[in-house]
């Protein structure tokens, strides 16, 4: 099974601001790379922050771009997104019936579950009782390994500034308890941090990578200010079978030098 993980598009019309220059171009290039090299992938997942400042123009632009993907695609919302606007523009988003953008999809190898971790009105992450109940149902109904996609990591990453807008501790503990009880979660994929990282949380392997915007600096100390870098964007290509899960990080050159000014929230 081959999956593509793409994250944090932060789509903004060209000319919006210096910090957002090139998000459309980088996303377009990512889509070209996927269509050229990975059109055989089973699914492409965009783990949130589809737009930078949610408005209809940005989401229509995101829809126009993502509809060019030759791979079936599911998008999630992130802290920068507006649920209603995103759902109105992008057909791959689903309301779970309780106002959250969450869904489940059968894969050739197990089940993909897409969680909504947006905390309305803040940049932090949440996983409230309503979402916990929904996930418990999805896990109980799932067959085989589970591949979990969400925007915020359910743990502190060590990136000091970003961890101030991570998932609430109590909600993260509730998610950990649910997943531990289920016991068949194969891998966790998240966005939000605009940095490549991988590891194991409560026995579950995880990975994340760079955005289509500026990237967050590797800073374990500065809480008050988020330093950003003009590094190349990345996609991740996931290969999985009964014995292994491999996450390949693919940097791609856009031929465009993004600005290093500005300090957006993950
Ligand atoms: Fe982001």
Provide the spatial order of strands within the biggest beta sheet: 4-5-6-7-9-8
The assigned CATH architecture is 4-Layer Sandwich
Any low-confidence stretches, pLDDT <50, length ≥5? Answer: 256-261
Level-1 CATH class name: Alpha Beta
Structural class: alpha/beta
CATH superfamily: Metallo-dependent phosphatases
Number of domains: 1
Distance between the termini: 30 Å
The Cα radius of gyration reads 17 Å
Q: How many strands, what sense, and barrel or not for the largest sheet?
A: 6 strands, mixed
Number of helices: 6
Percent of residues in helices: 10-25%
**Would you report the number of β strands?**
13
Output mean pLDDT.
93
Strand content: 15-25%
The bound ligands are: fe (ii) ion
CATH topology (level 3) name:
Purple Acid Phosphatase, chain A, domain 2
In short:
The chain has 266 residues and is an alpha/beta fold. The chain has helices at residues 23-37, 56-66, 83-89, 129-141, 160-163, 169-182, and strands at 2-6, 43-46, 73-75, 103-106, 111-114, 146-150, 185-190, 197-201, 204-208, 215-216, 228-229, 234-240, 245-251. Helix 1 (23-37) packs parallel to helix 2 (56-66) and helix 4 runs parallel beside helix 6 (169-182).
């Amino acid at each position: 099974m081959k999956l593509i993980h793409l994250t944090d598009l932060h789509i903004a019309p060209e000319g919006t601001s210096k910090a957002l220059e090139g998000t459309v171009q980088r996303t377009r290039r990512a889509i070209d790379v996927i269509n050229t090299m990975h059109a055989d992938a089973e699914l492409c997942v965009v783990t949130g922050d589809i737009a930078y400042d949610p408005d209809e123009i940005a989401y229509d632009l995101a829809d126009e771009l993502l509809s060019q993907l030759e791979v079936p695609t599911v998008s999630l919302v992130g802290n920068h997104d507006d649920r209603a606007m995103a759902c109105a523009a992008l057909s791959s988003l689903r309301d779970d019936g309780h106002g959250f953008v969450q869904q489940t999809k059968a894969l050739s190898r197990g089940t993909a579950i897409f969680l909504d971790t947006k905390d309305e009105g803040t940049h932090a992450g949440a996983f409230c009782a309503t979402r916990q109940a929904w996930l418990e149902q999805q896990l109980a109904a799932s067959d085989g390994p589970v591949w979990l996609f969400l925007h915020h990591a359910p743990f502190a990453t060590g990136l000091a500034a970003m961890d101030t807008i991570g998932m609430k501790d109590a909600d993260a503990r509730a998610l950990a308890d649910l997943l531990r009880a289920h016991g068949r979660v194969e891998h966790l994929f998240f966005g939000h941090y605009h940095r490549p990282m991988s590891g194991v949380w409560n026995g579950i392997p995880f990975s994340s990578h760079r955005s289509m915007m500026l990237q967050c600096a590797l800073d374990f100390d500065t809480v008050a200010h988020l330093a950003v870098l003009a590094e190349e964007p990345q996609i991740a290509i996931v290969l999985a079978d009964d014995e292994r899960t491999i996450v390949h990080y693919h940097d791609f050159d856009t031929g465009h030098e993004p600005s290093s000014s500005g300090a957006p929230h993950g």
